Amino acid sequence: xxxxxxxxxxxxxxxxxxxxxxxxxxxxxxxxxxxxxxxxxxxxxxxxxxxxxxxxxxxxxxxxxxxxxxxxxxxxxxxxxxxxxxxxxxxxxxxxxxxxxxxxxxxxxxxxxxxxxxxxxxxxxxxxxxxxxxxxxxxxxxxxxxxxxxxxxxxxxxxxxxxxxxxxxxxxxxxxxxxxxxxxxxxxxxxxxxxxxxxxxxxxxxxxxxxxxxxxxxxxxxxxxxxxxxxxxxxxxxxxxxxxxxxxxxxxxxxxxxxxxxxxxxxxxxxxxxxxxxxxxxxxxxxxxxxxxxxxxxxxxxxxxxxxxxxxxxxxxxxxxxxxxxxxxxxxxxxxxxxxxxxxxxxxxxxxxxxxxxxxxxxx
Length: 364
Hints:
The chain is α/β, with parallel strands linked by helices.
C-alpha cells in the first residue's frame, strides 16, 4: 500500500496534544508497516528543514508555511483552488491520503482520504474560540467529514460526538485512542520551585479553566487548609495577565507561580516534584498528561468530570467539581497515587490500528 501523510498543517510548538499525536504517528508507522508498503510524508519547505521523518519518503512542497496558511484560507472562503499542490499529491500516486489534523488541504485533492479528528471543542464551547477561527472551522471541517472515506477519532468521546452532533454513520468512524509510552528516569525534582506544590500543566486557554482553580486554591489558602503553592507550566496566552491579576486580588499572588513554556525534560522534573497534579479542564479530546501523571509519575491526580476521563480510567472519586473547595480538599486527602482503571494504549498500537484502517480504505 502507498500511504501519503500530509504534514502541511503541522506547526511544531503550536498545536499541543495534536503535535504529540502527529510526531508519534509518523515515528511508529514505519515500525508497523509491512514489506512493500510505501510511506510518504508531504511537507512544506520550512518544516522539511526542521522535522526528521525516518522511514518515510519525503515530498517537499515548494512553499513557505505562511503561504500554505494563506492558501488554506483562500480555499476555505473563496472558489480558488490550490491546483499546484493538488498536482503534487497526484504525482505521489498514493492509495490512501492520510490527513491527521482534521482538515483536508487541498480540499479537492484526488484520491481516497483517511481523516483524523482530534478536536471537537467548537461543538461544545464555541465561546472559547475566536470569531475568525470559528468561521474557518465552519468552512473546512464539515466538508472534510463529508469528503473522507473514513474518519479516525482519537477517543470514543470524539467518535460519539461525530455520530450525535455531525450525523456521521457509525460505519464511517473508528475510535483509535491516543497512545502513551514511559520515558524512563527523571533527573530529580525541579529546583525552580521551593517547597511543596500542586501542579497544573496546561496552556492558559479558556477551556483549561485556570480561573476556577485559582479561586478555589485561594479559598483553601484563606482557610489555612493548604500550605502548598500552585504551579503552572505551558504556553502563556494573553489570558495569563488577567489570571495573574486575579491571583493578586485574591491574596495568593506569591503562591501562584507560572514557570512558562519549559523544555519537556524540565516539565518532567516539575511533574516529579509535585504533591498532586490537577486537571480542572472543562474540555479534553483525550488527556495524555493525565495518563502520564498517573502511570509514569504515580502522582495523586485529580481531574474535572468529563466523559473522556472516564474513558481513560480516572476513578470517579478523583473527578470533582473544581468550583467546590471542599471537593478539592477531600480529593487531596485521599490516600496514595491515582491508579487508572484502564490500561493505556501504546503509540505503536495507535499506528498499527491506523494503518489497518488505511488498508481497508485502500481496498474500498
